[in-house]
Amino acid sequence: MTTQSSRTTAPGFPAPRRPRGDGSVAAVATRLVDLRRRLERTDLRPAPDTDAAFGELVGLCCFPPAGCTEGVLAQVAPHSDALRTLAATGEGHMENHWAGLIAAAPDPRAELDRFPYLGNYHDLVRLELAALTAVGLPAPRRVVVLGSGPLPLTGLVLATGHGAQVLHVDRDRAAVAAGDAVTAALGADGRVRSLVADLDDPQLSPALADELGRADLVLVGALVGPDAATKAAITARLTTATGPGTTLLVRSAAGLRTLLYPEIVPADLPALDVLLEVHPRTDVVNSVLVARAAT
C-alpha cells in the first residue's frame, strides 16, 4: 500500500488525513477501533465511505501524534490482525478496480496517470534503488517481483523507468491475468513477463527456481507471507535457488504502519544477512530490508 501522491486528484483512497485534535494514546486507539468497525460494515470495494475510512486509517498509521506509538500498539493489539486483513483486502479490491480501468481504457497511459498512488510507487522504487546504492550494489538488470498482484506497478516502474527485465510472480492466476492485461495495454510486455507460482509450496517450481537463479534482484512483497514465521520459511526456500550475487529486497513496516502490513525485522530472516534497513517517515508506507543469502 502507498498513500496518495499530491500529484493527482483521481478517485480512490483519498490522501491520508493527518490526525488533528486529541492526540492521546486512548483517543488514537479508540479511533483505530472505530475505523475497524466502520470498514467491517462495508464490502471494502472503492466507494466514498470506504475510501474515506481507509484514508483516515492510513493517515493515523503513517502520521501518528508524537510519542503515542507504543501505547497505541499495546491498546489495539486485539485488533491488529483484523486491521491488517482489512487493509490487504481493500488494497486488493482497489488494485483490481484500477487494473480493469487501465486495461480497458482507450488511452491506458492517461488512465494510469489518473491512478492516485502512481507517484508513490515511483517514490518507493527510488527509495529501494537508493538503498541498493547505499550498500554499494548496482541498479538491477533482472528482477523477480514476488506477490505482484493485479496492478503490478513496482515491476512496471522498474521496467519502463529503470530499464530492468522483470518477472511478475503471483499465486493468484486471476491477478496475474489482470496484471498481464495492464502490462500489454501499456506496451511494456517486451520487458515484463509473468509466472503463476505459490511460494507457500514446500518445493519451488522448476520454472521459478530457474528464474530466481538468473535474477540479480528478488523483491519480496509486503503481503508475501502473513507473518514473520511464514516470511522466514519463504525466504529460506528462495535462497536455495538464487545465485551467489542475488540481492533480496524484503518489504516490511514499522510503528503504527504495522497495522497495515506485517512487521519483519532482521532476526525474523535467519537465512539472510540483512545489509540495511530503511524506515521512511514520508507518504511511502513500506519499510525495506536489503539482504543477501547468509554465508
From TrEMBL:
GO biological process, one term: nicotianamine biosynthetic process
Top-rank EC class of the record's enzyme: transferase
Keywords (A to Z) from UniProt: S-adenosyl-L-methionine, Transferase
GO MF annotations in UniProt: nicotianamine synthase activity
InterPro entries the record matches: NAD(P)-bd_dom_sf, Nicotian_synth, SAM-dependent_MTases_sf
One Pfam assignment: NAS
Chain segments carrying region Disordered: 1-25
Keyword Transferase: yes
Top-level division of the source organism's lineage: Bacteria
Keyword Thylakoid: no
Enzyme Commission identifier(s): 2.5.1.43
PANTHER family, sorted: NICOTIANAMINE SYNTHASE 3
The protein, known as: Nicotianamine synthase
